[in-house]
Amino acid sequence: MSLETKDVGPTPKRRFNVLFGLTLFALLLALWLVLGVSTDSFWTGNNIANLLRQGSMIAILAIGQTFVIITGGIDLSVGAIVGFTSVVVAWLLAHGFPVWAAILITLGIGVCIGLFHGFGIVRLGLPPFIITLATLTSLRGIGLLITNGATISIDNDPFTEFSRNDFAGIPNLFWMVVLVGIPAYIFLHHSRWGRYLFSVGSNAEASRLSGVNVKGTIYLAYTLSAVCASFVGLLLASRIGIGNATQAEGWELQAIASSVIGGTSLFGAVGSIHGPLLGAFILATINNGANLLNVNSFWQRVITGVLIIVIVYFDQLRRRQR
Amino acid sequence: MTDHDISHRSDNGQSETISAAAAHLPILELRGLEKQYLGTHALKPADLAFKAGEIHAIVGENGAGKSTLIKLLTGVIPRTAGEILLRGEPVALTTPLEAIQHGINAVHQEVVLCPHLTVAANIFLGEEHRRFGLLQHRHMVREAQKILDDLGFVLPAHVLLSDLTIGQQQLIATARAATRGARFLIFDEPTAYLTREEAAQLFALIRRLQKSGVTIVYISHRMEEVFELADRVSILRDGRLVGTRNIDDTNENELISLMINRSIEQIYHKVPFTFGKTILETQALSGSGFENISISVREGEIVGLYGLIGAGRSEFVTTIFGRHPKSSGKIFWDGKEVNIERERDAIKLGIALAPESRRDQGLCLSLPVSLNLNLPIYKQLSRNLLISHREESRHADSQISDLRIKTASRSASAASLSGGNQQKIVIGKWLNHGAKLFIFDEPTVGVDVGTKAEIYRLFSTLLQNGAGIILISSYLPEVYELADTLHVFRRGQMVASHPHKTVTHEDILTQALGSASADTDTHN
């Protein structure tokens, strides 16, 4: 009885998922090879470190974004949170707070922003797109109000040196991706809340009737995304040594693009951690390579757009074939 | 709605025109028409001829094959075998568009129009009047108004569709089909959401259409409507066409017995258990959709709730489950009054719900079978905050083999399974949860007989372990055979209660339909 299996294809699906991950990885390697051959400067330690630094911050944003997208939502505010929290941490450091306190407070503010998103969605019944769009513009505004439009510079050397330093030959910023990525992987694939993210994204009503705390799950997803973004805000402030609310313009779109290139479905319930990471570094490589090849930076945007269409199209194709 | 929107024109010369028309040749003929889903017959080979200009009623229980028949006739699903002849010519009817081009239209139970557009815009949707490529709004409103006036009811053509009542929207949907040159119009339980007056208006319209030569297929399980409208009636049971009668040659009892009379196969494994203590009791519980319901469930007991769709049964049990707030009344669990505010409260007490709609409420279709089976018990499967993958797989595999769920593997998506196997997941996920009370809302809809029998056997196992069951079904034989206590619901009220098999099917059906004779007394 249980042998009638001809019309279902989970094993192929599994294989496809692995294959898709490998395809992305192969694409990344191919890009690196091509750039290595066509430019002299790509495979220099300096450039690789630079590439890793560039990709790292978007990668962390993409991880947070992926949690939200898996629940069937979207978080447009992450870029604004990065800019805002860079101002917050700069302000705190300028007012004599110790580094550890400034970091904790900044992350705490990230938690508050995420909880507010959850509140707007669960309690006020606003669509995720709307509530996060609203905080996108508000946070930039508040950040500018705090500094009166100016930039706060950070003259705390240990704080700013962190992002420029390496550990074991690898930039600290990339280590931060590891620091976020491993717990994120364990959370998503080895904890029940990870399962709940998927189940809520697939069918919130069925999840609720199965005893899943749907509202709590939504709060959790947006809080994680906002915390990831405020963490990136810290990293950015460290890297550029200033706090400025207009920084990280459009990063939310890069984060969403990375996540989607990495196989996350905007319809929810499909996503991973490694996918968005690969997606982020593919985008970073394209930008880096385009710079090295002296491609007009306007073209970089066009290339990114085309790439999103191509990769997501093939991903859809793969799903339909299943 | 105010009165001036509606005009009553219940004038109609009844059956003189009909008998003349009924003598005509068949307009649509089915020869051996048949539909299978995954090897299950949704419609067994059927031969049926619709005569031009007749009103032909089709009756049958839920799952008898009525909707399959409509979908075949309107080109929504392809047939497995057989022929459809339109005026003697075979037609393919593979797409809805083709059906419409042949003049075959359907008016559904739920209005499928655009509520945010005007009445006129809806009537001309897809066939807008244009001049130089621009819409002629005023012209369309005028034309639509003419159509509405001609059809004999005064409804304003310029208002938004959503400003009308459901019944009026149903009339608009019918008018729309009529203006498209429909020669063959199928009504699928059109009065399900209508008031009496609205239904009367719809009937008047149906008769007008008939007089103008349209052939009507009228699907309903309301006996009084069938006898009021139809010239002939066909009866479906378990996907089989069991007979066609002239309305004058039959009566309500015959139709009901044709609908439900079955050699009760050995699928109902009713094992009597001795009842233990009361698990759950409701006292005068009211909420949205039901009023003043008092029931109790004991260990080892199946309490059946029978009634038509929309009678308030599902609302009642989902309120017990904490999905909706109660408005008054009390719930007792294990003898103590409890306050169930949300689903998790109910689940914590030990209540499990297998909801009515598998797809919308029961399953995360895109996700693996194993996740669906484990969803309520991930807490138990977690150790030190992390899920034990081995436990997760082991539990899923044991459910799959115990319940004989046909799936390629535990990681196949729930969507890839057949209806019966999906239902086993919906039920199976509660089995290791330690629930005391199981609520099954229409557990065997769209499930083949073999799987039904397995589900019923599962009930026995649950009862044996001291659980109680609330079983909701619109399928009378099921609740009739299985329920130790059977409560009949009609329009949000509990109209009767019967111990196991103490009354006939006909009595129960009469109580649920609320037709003529018995307007309810409650014995218990």
Structure, explained:
Chain A has helices spanning 10-38, 45-70, 78-94, 99-122, 128-147, 157-162, 172-190, 192-202, 204-209, 214-240, 251-261, 274-292, 297-321; strands spanning 152-153, 166-167, 170-171, 242-243. Chain A has 322 residues and is mostly helical. In chain A, the strands form two sheets. A two-stranded antiparallel ribbon of chain A has the order 1-4. In chain A, strands 2-3 form a two-stranded antiparallel sheet. In chain A, helix 3 runs parallel beside helix 5 (128-147), helix 4 (99-122) packs antiparallel against helix 5 and helix 11 (251-261) packs across helix 12. The radius of gyration of chain A is 20 Å and the shape is globular. The longest helix of chain B is centred in the middle third of the chain and has 16 residues, at 196-211. Chain B folds into three domains: 21-115 and 182-260, P-loop containing nucleotide triphosphate hydrolases (Rossmann fold, 3-Layer(aba) Sandwich), CATH 3.40.50.300; 264-350 and 435-524, 3-Layer(aba) Sandwich (Rossmann fold); 365-433, no CATH class. Chain B starts with 15 loop residues before the first helix and ends in an 11-residue tail after the last helix. Chain B has a six-stranded mixed β-sheet, with helices on both faces. A six-stranded mixed β-sheet of chain B has the order 19-22-23-16-24-25, with helices on both faces. Chain B is 33% helix and 26% strand. Chain B has 524 residues and is α/β, with parallel strands linked by helices. The A-B interface holds A 1-2, 4-5, 7-11, 13-14, 186, 190-192, 195-196, 198-199, 202-203, 205-213, 269-270 and B 321, 323, 343-344, 347, 353, 355, 360-368, 371, 374-376, 378-379, 381-382, 385-387, 389, 400-401, 404-409, 411-413, 416-417, 429.
